[in-house]
Amino acid sequence: MLRFGRASFPDAGEGKARMSVDRSRVGGMALDTSPESPAPVRQIANAIGGWIDRLGAVWVEGQVAQMSRRPGMQTVFLTLRDSVADISVPVTCTRFLLDSLNPPLVEGASVIIHAKPSYYANRGTLSLQARDIRPVGLGELLARLEQRRQLLAAEGLFAAELKRPLPFLPTKVGLVTAANSAAERDVLENARRRWPQVRFEVAYAAMQGSRSAADVVEKLQRLDRDPEVDVIVVARGGGSVEDLLPFSDEHLIRAVHAARTPVVSAIGHEPDSPLLDLAADVRASTPTDAAKLVVPDVVEEQRIVATGRDRLRGGIAALIHREQTLLDALRSRPVLADPRSLIDARRDEVTSLRDRARRTVGHALDRAADDIGHHRARARALSPLETLRRGYAVAQDADGHVLTSVADAAEGAAVSIRLADGRLAATITSTEQTETAETEPIKTEPLKEGSDD
Amino acid sequence: MTDSDTADKNLSYEQAREELVEVVRKLEAGGITLEESLALWERGEKLATLCQEWLDGARKKIDAAIQD
C-alpha cells in the first residue's frame, strides 16, 4: 500500500483522504509488449493517465515556491515545495480559486492544498490539481514553531554550553544577508565605524520566500568552510512571522548547530524571535547590534592600550629609577667610591707602626747614649790622669816600668816622671827608705819628691 | 673572553646587584687581608659596571620604544 505520509491532517476538514492503489489493478495495466510488438506512446500515456486518475484527492502542506499567472489563461501554475526537503511538485489551480483567497496568496506562503494528482498526457507531466487552497494560519504557524522549538530544544540544539565565544578581532566577518539590504548596510557601516580595518566576506542569499532557508544554509556552509571567516552574521531586517519563517527552518537550525564558526543571528527587531536566535551562538537584537558584537570599538581599545602603555612606562621608569638610586648608593659607599680608603687605613697603620718603631728605637738609643755618658764620666773619674792633675806623678825607669819602690831605682839611674801635662826626665841623686811598709804612700812619696827636684 | 667574563654576562641584574651588596658589606665589615680586599673591590667595580650597563640598556630600550 502506498501512502503519502504528509498528506493528511486530522483537522483538514473533509475527513481523511487517502490515495491508495490496488496492486492487482496496477498489474492489470501491464500490456503485452515486446520488441516485436511495442505499444505506441498514446497507449502508454493513456494507461499512466488512467492509473493516476484512479488516485484520490489528498491534503498536502507545503510552501508556494513559485506562482505564474499567464495572461489570458484560466489556469495558474504553482510550484509547491516541501518545507524541509528539496522536493517540489507542480500544482495547477484555476484563476478563480486563486483570486478568491483572502489574504491573497504570495510566494513563500505556507499552504494546505486539497488536490488530486493529474496526468497531462499531451506533455507527459504530472501535477496536483488544486481544489482548495488554505493558507496556514498565524496561530497554527506559531503553534507549530513552538512545537519545533520544543523538539529541537529537547535534542539539545539550543544548549547554553554549546555557545561559543566570539573572536575579539575576527580575521574576516562572514555576512549572510540580502543584497543591498538595509541590514547589510547597517552591519557594514556600524562595524567599519567601530573598526575601519574590518574585513567582510559577504554572501548574498534570499532572505525571504520559499528558497530562503536552503539558500541561507548554503551560504552559511560556504562561509563556514572559509578558514579566514572567524564569525558569521546572519542579518535581516524585521518582518512578519511569515517573513521570518525561513529563520526557524529546521535545516537552517541544524546547519547553524553544525557550523564550527560562531554564528550571530541578527534578525529583525526585539519582538521577533525566530528559532535561529536560539541556535545561534550569540543573538543580536538588530543588524546594528550585531556589528557591535563582532568587532571591537577601535577608539575605545586604543584608549585602553594607551592607558596601559602609560602605566607600563611609568612603572618601568620608576623601577629603573629605584634601582639606579640603589646602585648609586652602593657606589657612593667609601669602599667603592674611593677605594684608596682601603689603602689609606692600612697606610695609616703602617705609618703609625713605623713611628712607634722609630720612637722606640730612639728612646733606646737615647738611653744607651746616657748610659755611655755616665759610664764615660765614671771612667774619666777613675782615670790616673785626674790623679796626676791633683799633683801626683808616675815614675818610670828607662824600660818604661813604673817604679813602685825605692829599691827599683839606684842612685844615678835615669827615670821618666809623668805629670798630667807631660813628662820630666830626671836622674836619681839619692834614695831613702821610709819606715812605713805601706805600698801606696811609698809609691807616691818618692814621686812627689822626684817631681820636686 | 675568560670563563668568568662569560659567567658575568649571564648574571641577571638582580644577581649582580645582590653580589655587589655582599661585596660592599664584606669590605665594610673588614677583617680581611689587603689582597682579599683589593680583589673584592675589583669585583665590586665590575659588578657595579654590569648593573649600570643593565640600567643604561633598559633606559635606552624604553627611550627607543617611546620614540616610536
Describe the structure.
The radius of gyration of chain A is 71 Å and the shape is rod-shaped. Chain A has helices at 23-29, 41-53, 95-99, 138-155, 182-194, 212-225, 250-258, 275-279, 287-294, 298-332, 334-337, 340-382, 384-389, 439-452; strands at 58-68, 75-81, 88-94, 110-120, 125-135, 172-177, 200-204, 229-236, 263-267, 282-283, 394-396, 414-419, 422-427. Chain A is built from 14 helices and 13 strands. In chain A, 43% of the residues lie in helices and 19% in strands. In chain B, helix 2 runs antiparallel to helix 3. The A-B interface holds A 313, 316-317, 320, 323-324, 326-327, 330-331, 333, 335-336, 339, 342-343, 346 and B 13, 17, 20-21, 24, 27-28, 34, 37-38, 41, 44-45, 48, 51-52, 55, 58-59, 62, 65-66.
Quick description:
By secondary structure, chain A is of the alpha/beta class. Chain A contains 14 helices and 13 strands. By secondary structure, chain B is mainly α.
Task: Please give the structural blueprint.
The complex is a heterodimer of chains A (453) and B (68).
Chain A (H helix, E strand, L loop, with lengths): L22 H7 L11 H13 L4 E11 L6 E7 L6 E7 H5 L10 E11 L4 E11 L2 H18 L16 E6 L4 H13 L5 E5 L7 H14 L3 E8 L13 H9 L4 E5 L7 H5 L2 E2 L3 H8 L3 H35 L1 H4 L2 H43 L1 H6 L4 E3 L17 E6 L2 E6 L11 H14 L1
Parallel strand pairs in A: 3-5, 6-7, 6-8, 8-9, 9-10
Antiparallel strand pairs in A: 1-2, 1-4, 2-3, 4-5, 11-12, 12-13
Helix pairs in contact in A: 5-9, 6-7
Chain B lengths: L2 H7 L3 H17 L4 H34 L1
- Stretches of chain A where pLDDT is under 50 for at least 5 consecutive residues are 1-28, 440-453
Into which percentage range does the β-strand content of chain B fall? under 5%
Which two chains share the most extensive interface? A-B, 17 and 22 residues
How many strands of chain B? 0
